[in-house]
Amino acid sequence: MSLYSALYAGVSGLNAQSSAMAAVADNITNINTVGYKGVEAQFKTMVTDGRARSSYSAGGVVAAPIAMISKQGMMQASSNSTDIAIDGKGFFVTRTAAGGQGEVAFTRAGSFRADEEGYLKNPATGLYLYGYRLDAEGKYVNTGNLDDLEAIRVSDLTGTAAATSRIQARINLNTATDVSPAAAGYTKGDLAKYAANNSYTPKTENQFQRSFTVYDQQGGSHTLNMAFIKTGPNAWKAEVYSNPPGDVMDTSVTPAVKSTSGFIAGGDVNFKPDGSLDLPAGSWLNSALNITYSNQAASVPIKLEMGSDGKIDGLTQFGQPSSLISGNTDGGTLGNLSQIEITKEGVVNAVFDDGTTRSVFQLPLATFQNPDGLTRVSGNAYTASRLSGGFTLNEPGELGAGAIAANSLEASTVDLAGEFTNMIRFQRAYSASSKIITTVDDMLREVSDLKR
């Protein structure tokens, strides 16, 4: 009897509108949840027999809630440096425990704080943030494997050391300097110091020199000198050497011995007619210094940052006295951790109270072919499913993963006015479905009264 199908359709309407109202309740209660993605209640019909022509049997309706996970929430400013948001489609990779243990979860809730052990953790959800640990040169390998990620922890860097990885300098060489008398007979290493009569004296007197303090991986300090002589118009020779020479090893012989000259690197330094640096490809100024210290402490290649070709951001030649305008080196013994900074590229930097900064982790972002197909789990997080497809780990800014916004949080995507409107709709639809049931009940009563 079609009346019974109408009765069941009314019941399905009650169930569907109840599910829709539950979605509204979930959305409203999460209006202030960081990174929450609203659930949209949609409906689909249920048909018993679509070929019917003479009579009709009601099928009803069923609710089909859809989490709008791919919808971007608004960015809200935060005063906490470890609050981060994603402007794009990516997800942070987290686990429910540190040390590579616990279940993997993907989230957009970037409210992270350092816990009692120094790990970055979302205190509301209990999820630990994971990333790639950077080596001494600030590099890593993106394997795409979750097992290669580590829980972000920077507190264990306090009291350790970082080797120097770069020397940056702006130096002006006086264009009025006379050509060095020793220019014609100069050979590489003449500007470096060598041992003679127990005193260190240069074979060729330099015309300008400045020193830089660099550090090995044990935090030990070493002095490197950079010396110059003029060899012609717009042409100079420069060398980098250790002072004292025996502070570095001479690896040109086997076995290596303490250097007697301290020479590390050197070559031509040329300028263009406008005084800017003439830096051809392959110049020694584009290379890195590979140093072996005699104290057996490890080192990393030290990149020379002496300017760009055709620019005045490094070495220049103008009619002013030769001078060091500015110079910087990194590395040294790390003090107490002052704060944590996260760049838009996802690099986690540890800033220490002595002003030293060290890049320690790279945050990857996980992307999915169908983020709306992810499975929601408690803690405002998601897990991969058959509908979402597998994940891909990329740096922020690559392949649509989006950029990371530091000192920001992604707000909930819930529209409160829209949710109240939906509440009215679903409430009225629920009342209408109940009317179907009471009306069918009256009609069935009329049928049963036919026997009287």
Shape: elongated
Structural class: mainly beta
Rounded to an integer, what's the Rg over CA atoms?
A: 35 Å
Helical residue percent? 10-25%
Mean pLDDT: 89
> How much of the polypeptide forms β-strand, as a percent range?
35-45%
Distance between the termini: 21 Å
List unreliable stretches of 5+ residues: none
- The DSSP helix count reads 2
Can you summarize the main beta sheet?
13 strands, antiparallel
In total, the number of strands is: 35
Q: Topology, pairings included?
A:
Layout: H1 2-29, E1 39-45, E2 61-67, E3 75-77, E4 84-87, E5 91-95, E6 104-107, E7 113-114, E8 120-122, E9 127-133, E10 150-151, E11 161-162, E12 166-174, E13 193-196, E14 199-202, E15 208-215, E16 221-232, E17 235-242, E18 249-250, E19 257-258, E20 263-271, E21 277-278, E22 288-289, E23 302-305, E24 315-318, E25 323-329, E26 332-333, E27 337-342, E28 347-352, E29 357-362, E30 365-368, E31 375-377, E32 381-383, E33 391-394, E34 403-406, E35 408-410, H2 416-448
Parallel strand pairs: 12-23, 12-24
Antiparallel strand pairs: 1-2, 3-35, 4-34, 5-6, 5-9, 5-30, 6-32, 7-8, 8-9, 9-10, 9-29, 11-26, 12-25, 13-14, 15-16, 16-17, 17-20, 18-19, 20-21, 22-23, 27-28, 28-29, 30-33, 31-32
Helix pairs in contact: 1-2
List keywords for this structure.
five-stranded mixed sheet, single chain, 13-stranded antiparallel sheet, 452 residues, 35 strands
Please tell me about this protein's structure.
This protein is mostly beta strands. It has two helices and 35 strands. It has helices at 2-29, 416-448; strands at residues 39-45, 61-67, 75-77, 84-87, 91-95, 104-107, 113-114, 120-122, 127-133, 150-151, 161-162, 166-174, 193-196, 199-202, 208-215, 221-232, 235-242, 249-250, 257-258, 263-271, 277-278, 288-289, 302-305, 315-318, 323-329, 332-333, 337-342, 347-352, 357-362, 365-368, 375-377, 381-383, 391-394, 403-406, 408-410. Strands 5, 6, 7, 8, 9, 10, 27, 28, 29, 30, 31, 32 and 33 form a 13-stranded antiparallel β-sheet that branches. Strand 13 and strand 14 (199-202) form a beta hairpin. It starts with a helix and ends with a helix. The mean pLDDT is 89.
